Amino acid sequence: ISFSLSLIFLFLALYIGKKMTNQAMRPIIHSFDLQQEFIANASHELRTPLSVIQAGLDIIDLEKNSLSSFSTETLSDIKNEIRSTTQLVNDLLFLTRSDASQVEINNTEFELNDFLLNIIRPFQLIASKKHQTLTLQTNKPILIKQDQEKLKQLIYIFLDNAIKYTPEKGVITIQYNLNDMQKKPKLNIEILDSGIGISSSDLEHIFDRFYRTEKHRSRTEGSTGLGLSIAKSLVSVLGGSLTVKSQLNKGSKFTIKIPIK
Ligand code: ADP
């Protein structure tokens, strides 16, 4: 009897426990969904006025010769602000969509060296302004199948950060290797920089949304704290993983591992 009673109590406790957890969780999940929906809608609605403002500024820009130098400078400031706000809005929209697993994967075949060389070219220009060297360590040509756009967006985030967080004359390298000995071949891409590095206490937070280390909490550097959380979402959409190793004042190494065909 006591065994049966304990079994009944156990089931009863489990049932009540589950019900309470469900009830307690429902408002949390519900409010999270509402929050996501609100961010998605607000970001979406903001895109139209932003593109109208951008178009208006482009028209004024055509007549900038007739503007005073003060107005030209103000125009350029407004354009920069609009560009970063548009980026922020796009980032927020991407994050809410990727959360809802509404991201479409578009796999195509391409040659990896050419793909990476094309990606780094514009960054080499930006890096050269800081007298940094940015190089790609190429391997023999190889065709892979992946979502080019997402992979490109992912590498952009790391290169952008590497340049931003590496002082003048620093060195940035991008290298890759293929691990095709396994059943599911993987591409490992590493982005290394000789920059300011990240402390171990910050390392565990840098992939969180809006997280910026103490030093970079000003918006002047175009820092929003969203880049790495987008990278994390992109990698998970591609079915891969992300790791980072870093040492303060020495530099950082970000490794992207993604499955390829
Ligand atoms: P953002 O660069 O817009 O601030 P991220 O999410 O890309 O946002 O990065 C989060 C934080 O991680 C940055 O604010 C910066 O402090 C740190 N970080 C990212 N990449 C690097 C890097 N390569 N070197 C040093 N710190 C970095």
UniProtKB/TrEMBL annotation:
Keyword Kinase applies: yes
Top-level taxon in the UniProt lineage: Bacteria
Primary location recorded for the protein, binned into one broad class: membrane
UniProt keyword annotations, A-Z: ATP-binding, Kinase, Membrane, Nucleotide-binding, Phosphoprotein, Transferase, Transmembrane, Transmembrane helix, Two-component regulatory system
EC number assigned by the record: 2.7.13.3
UniProt catalytic activity: ATP + protein L-histidine = ADP + protein N-phospho-L-histidine
GO cellular component: plasma membrane
Protein name, per record: histidine kinase
From-to range in the entire protein, with total length: 180 to 440 of 440
